[in-house]
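retry 2 of 3: previous attempt timed out while embedding iron/sulfur cluster. Reduced batch size to 1 and resubmitted. Inputs unchanged:
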Amino acid sequence: MVSWDKPREECGIFGIAAHPEAARIAYLGLYALQHRGQESAGIVSSDRKKLRIEKGMGYVADIFSESRLERLHGDSALGHVRYSTAGSSTVRNAQPILIDCWRGSIALAHNGQLTNSAYLRHELERDGAIFHSTSDSEVILHLISRSRRRTLQEAFIEALGMVKGAFSLAMLTPEYLLVARDPRGFRPLSIGRLGESYVVASETCAFDLINAEYERDVEPGEVIRIEGNSLDSQSPLPKMKRAFCVFEHIYFSRPDSVVFGRNVYSSRREMGRFLAREHAVEADVVVPIPDSGVSAAIGYSQESGIPLEFGLIRNHYVGRTFIEPKQAIRNFGVKVKLNPVREIVDGKRIVLVDDSIVRGTTSRKIVHIVRAAGAKEIHMRITAPPVIAPCYYGIDIPTRHELIASAKSVEEICKFIDADSLGYLSLESMLAAAGDKESFCSACFTDHYPTDVGIDERQKNLFNQDSDLITPME
Ligand code: SF4
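retry 2 succeeded.
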């Protein structure tokens, strides 16, 4: 498998109600969200009596054959693409998770990561609950099933009051679709209209593919019930300071999406402009590291007046596995994905624009292949500050000791990646480029988390002191 030194998004969600081709539309929605998770995908459909599920490992296009989509009867559907962080990579952890409990059939799709799931799971298991997956999302279903609240919707809300961390959720029952976003709004979730039907998606690029109109974002702390063509909103969760994941704008989301109310391409181009002002350099050409560096490189080029060229070409068809030659080829893992255009880089002073440096190993290999293609100087420019801390809210960032910037200075990183200079965008400029500065989480750059992330550990200690009850936690 080709390793690519980037943080990885965990999941994408797509839901639709009251549409005669619900499962097929969900399939297309997932297709547009494929970049948010490539390990597994699933769709649950409802014909208002029964839920049916099809899911598997791999890409959306490979999992859903014509016959599998045929089996997904009904006019509502919920889909999910997943890349695992919490929970391992098996079909058991693929979502949506479909269960039958005393309240009936329920399917759940989750984007985000809970910060108290280990504690809750421990308590639930001690109470006799049997888990079928290692996914933290299953905890929510157990809480719903055990709730004494009268209706399923009330039980859903009660469960949301007990979990902590990041969740953009959708739950399908035979009769309706419930969607919710955690009170800080870490992960995106939007609502659109396809004719009379409501659709929900992690990113608005899914609406564009199916010709749906983006209406608005699900608000942080909001719970929405979509039944037929009607939508009912409530805000039962406590108000909290917003903490939208700024990495969605830097790297994860597609540039054609509107995320947290702002177009991602515009944010990235703006980051590039700020970067050119903060880290100007004499150079001949600006080269993006594709694909995520492209929009920022355009901004850098526009601001600096240095021409932009696509001096690195990405192979989009690299599979998950391939047979490596027995004799080692230098920088093979990177070369199989990226190839420099010698005619553009040879003899030139290059500004290489990328969105992040995680371990530093991939950046170093890229610098080496560009230098080997004849570049005279290489000036690496990064559209975010150094990543110094892990994420607990649904993004797979390596542990602290693996993050090169947690232990090395900018000068040391520059030396490690073998660049002639290295410039990171300041925190202030990154947030300003992404929109409303006050609304973002930037914990992986600052080490200041918007929630208590040690809650699992502390609550486990409490549990060891013989706590019997699961109670909503602050
Ligand atoms: S820690 Fe970083 S990746 Fe995680 S939610 Fe905050 S900004 Fe996003």
